[in-house]
Amino acid sequence: MHVSTADAGSPSDNTVPLRTDTVRVDLGARGYDIIVGVGLLDQIDRLITPVLERKRVAVITDSNVGPLYRTTVEAALSRSSITFETFVLPAGEATKTFGQIERLTEALLAEKAERGMTLLALGGGVIGDITGFVAAILLRGVPFIQIPTTLLAQVDSSVGGKTGVNSAHGKNLIGSFYQPRLVVADMAVLEQLPVRELRAGYAETLKYGLIDDPEFFTWLEAHGTDLLAGDRDARRHAVVHCCQAKARIVAEDEREAGRRALLNLGHTFAHAIEAEAGYGGRVLHGEAVALGMVLAFRLSARLGHCDRGDGDRLERHLIDTGLPARAGDVDINWSPAALIEHMSRDKKVQDGRVTFVLARGIGQAFTTNDVPDDALKAVLAEFADGPQ
Ligand code: NAD
Ligand code: GLY
After folding, report:
1. pLDDT per residue over 134-186, tens digit each?
2. What is the pLDDT of residue 9?
3. 188 lines ligand 1 (CB under 6 A)
4. Which ligand gives the minimal distance to the CA of 261?
5. Is 305 in the pocket of ligand 2 (CB under 6 A)?
């Protein structure tokens, strides 16, 4: 982990008006804004100042994002006399470990972390999840701000306060609910995001349509390829729409006692696929979610909840947008027994029964733990043997 320190510079004069959309996450005293726009990193000082308790922050970023954006962020902080230290973690899912939490926490304490300083998560979902968790436990809690730099983080992980890391026993098994003070999503950074990462984020975008918004799914069928190709209006529409949807769900069910669980569509399968792949980048989280959503629709059809045609429609759109839709699209062992073993360790297991998000059609998701083992095995086996 690389650490750098800078003293605050001269006061800010960066008063250029920004065109932004703001979505409120309505959680009473813990409520916050999500600001979406283009060119926001350059004016990050101005955007974060209203929520800072003290003019001291720690920027947490990764080894890919740091070289691209830390200079811009640090220059903006200096302009407004905000003191900062920057901590750079290795990029990728393999960093989401308890060991990294300890290293980062100790590094912050070595730099004399104090209550009232704010952590800035500058990166994708990995940096957001780690920073949020460290913020929750450092000095029994310091504020943090999400500055998501992937599509996945802008449409999903930066909002809602789920923080944490993976365990040797499975995905996201260690963590806490801890809300950020602010989310600043600068869509300009998506221009630098590798296309594979962009597509992985698109899978989580699609999820909102599949859960309860069939019109949005239809809109994505029409505009998804433009969005992926760089159409700024399409990106803005999708990011703002997803943030609005997530803000509504989180405000209604912050701690996943009910409706929020629908956001886990495809995730029981996805987490098993990621565990089988080993978190080394062989299968990205969003790619696993794409496959998991296909499996959720197949399981729904097998159990008579929806038509097979709904899943076929989803698979066609995944293929059209270059996402994995078939077992052969990712390099893992598709053994049903191994995947079911991973699922048995899922957070959502109750009384030994795994909770699934299934669907009665596109935009009609529901949760159930009434899934017979033989149906689950049959769906996995058929998928593994199907067209590659
Ligand atoms: P990530 O953070 O690993 O980022 C993906 C890759 O893109 C990394 O290599 C990163 O360095 C690089 N990158 C990030 N921004 C970039 C940019 N602008 N330009 C170039 N490269 C850039 O992965 P992710 O897909 O953002 O997030 C996945 C993680 O999010 C998973 O761990 C998943 O469990 C978690 N997640 C959490 C929630 C939640 O509610 N907390 C929701 C969904 C997913
Ligand atoms: N990404 C799932 C959630 O935030 O609940």
Report:
1. 999 999 999 999 999 999 999 999 999 999 999 998 889 999 999 999 999 99
2. 39
3. no
4. 2
5. no
Query: Where does the pLDDT of residue 4 fall: very low under 50, low under 70, confident under 90, or very high at 90 and above?
Result: very low
CA of 195 to the centre of ligand 2 (A): 23
Residues 365-383: what's their mean pLDDT? 95
Q: Are 119 and 161 in contact (CB under 8 A)?
A: no
pLDDT tens-digit map of 64-73: 999 999 999 9
Q: How far is CA 371 from CA 279, 304, 360, in A?
A: 27, 12, 14
- Helix, strand, coil shares of the chain as percentages rounded to 5? 50, 20, 30
pLDDT given at position 345: 82
Query: Tell me, what DSSP letter sits at residue 181?
Result: S
Q: Which residue has the tokens 């297991």?
A: 349
**Cβ 160 under 6 angstroms from ligand 1:** yes
Q: Is the CB of 266 under 6 A from ligand 2?
A: no
Ligand with an atom nearest the CA of residue 264: 2
**For residues 256 and 298, what is the distance between their CA atoms, to the nearest angstrom?**
25
What is the strand order of the sheet 20-25 is part of? 2-6, 83-89, 56-62, 118-123, 144-148, 182-186, 32-37, 20-25
Active-site residues: which are they?
A: 140, 162, 204, 246, 256, 260, 264, 267, 271, 285
Mutate to test the pocket of ligand 1, among 193, 197, 268 (most ligand atoms within 8 A of CB): 197
CA of 153 to the centre of ligand 1 (A): 6
Q: Which two tokens stand for residue 102?
A: 């300890």
> Strand pairing partners for 380?
none
